[in-house]
Amino acid sequence: MQGMSERQYAAHVGLSRGAIQKAKVAERLVLFADGSIDAEASDVRRAETTDPSKTRKPLEPKLKPVPEAAVAAVGDTLREQGLAVPAVGGGTTFLQAKTANEVLKAQERRIRLQTLKGELIERARALALVFRLAREVRDAWVNWPARSSALMAADLGVEPAAMQKVLEKHVRAHLDELAEVRPDFR
């Protein structure tokens, strides 16, 4: 065999064997006497006789730009789990992104389950509960001098009104100091 078979030529030009058979029947291929295909001459003839508007363009990969924030989030998630992190500026592989996605889905399911079990509550609800508790403690301290000053005054042998004023002054000073403390609820 001098030239290529239909199958070999189809692989050479990136077409199906059926398309090569149609081109052979339409005499767009150059054949040797033994029926094999002359690849070089056939390539030239096909280029001359093929309508460019009917040729397939090679598929270009459709790559979408990935925001840096997404790449950073993948790196953060992998780092938290002790997995390999993409190099800075090196991009993220599909496997790394998929792994990070699976880790995040597992974390989300764990949080949802903990919420359903009552182990977690919403942040707003927790803040409201802490605020209410702090207000109750403050009110208890504000009322404490009036309730206990008479007993303390009797134990110390001093005037109850004076004792109440002194206790109120010190309790208010302490509560003012506590009011300046602002916890960071991030």
Walk me through the structure.
By secondary structure, the protein is mainly alpha-helical. Helices cover 65% and strands 0% of the residues. The protein has helices at residues 6-13, 17-25, 39-49, 68-80, 94-117, 123-156, 160-180. The model has no long low-confidence stretch (mean pLDDT 85).
Mean pLDDT: 85
The percentage helix is: 55-70%
Strand content: under 5%
Computed Rg: 41 Å
In summary, what is this structure?
The protein is mainly alpha-helical and about 190 residues long.
Question: Keyphrases for this structure?
Answer:
7 helices, mainly alpha
List the helices and strands and how they pair.
Blueprint: H1 6-13, H2 17-25, H3 39-49, H4 68-80, H5 94-117, H6 123-156, H7 160-180
Helix pairs in contact: 1-2, 4-5, 6-7
